[in-house]
Design brief:
By secondary structure, the chain is mainly α. The chain has one domain (4-197). The protein has seven helices and no strands. It has helices at residues 4-30, 37-57, 60-80, 85-107, 111-134, 143-162, 166-192. Helix 1 (4-30) packs parallel to helix 3 and helix 6 (143-162) packs antiparallel against helix 7 (166-192). 32% of the residues are buried.
Amino acid sequence: MDGIGPLIIGLTGVGLSWVLAGAQWWRARRSVAGISVLTWSVFLALNATWAVYGVGVGNPYLVANGVGAALFNVALLWEVEPRRHRGLLVVVVSALVTGLALWVGTAISWQPVAAWCLGLAVFLRWPQVLRLMRSPDVAGVSLVTWVVAATNNLVWVVIAAQRDDLWLVGVNVTLTLSSLVLVLLCLWRRVSLPPARHRQPSP
């Protein structure tokens, strides 16, 4: 596809990714309750690796998406880890993983890098999916965030399809479906909970 359409779709995908990452950073500035260092460490590794992959396959939207979101992830981890010991370790490990991805992509192939991103994407959603399956407590789970995340991932499916990147399609289809599962689980828990036990979700 040529023309203004792909540009608008690409910028929409980048913008939504930045808004989601920025919103979580802003939330962490007010309260770090319920924020998982492990989850956001994986997000950092995923976004940084996507940026490298984007450079390798010539996808400027993916580069912008990965760099911007990764910077917000670093800022968030700095808020969660005020002493910076574990936060610094996470950033260093993520940098090493990103460097390894760059070496694999340039020396071998970019397909293993995309496969690594797919594995990280699958891992990202499982902690909250399992939590909502095991516990009726929806505190800290924002329904709006996951609806926007599903929409964002769907936009990235379109971007990937336009660029004939089947790996990127696979990753974002996986993320879209897992985000929708989280939305459905959250709605189910909200409906099944007695009114007195509802808690206000984090923004």
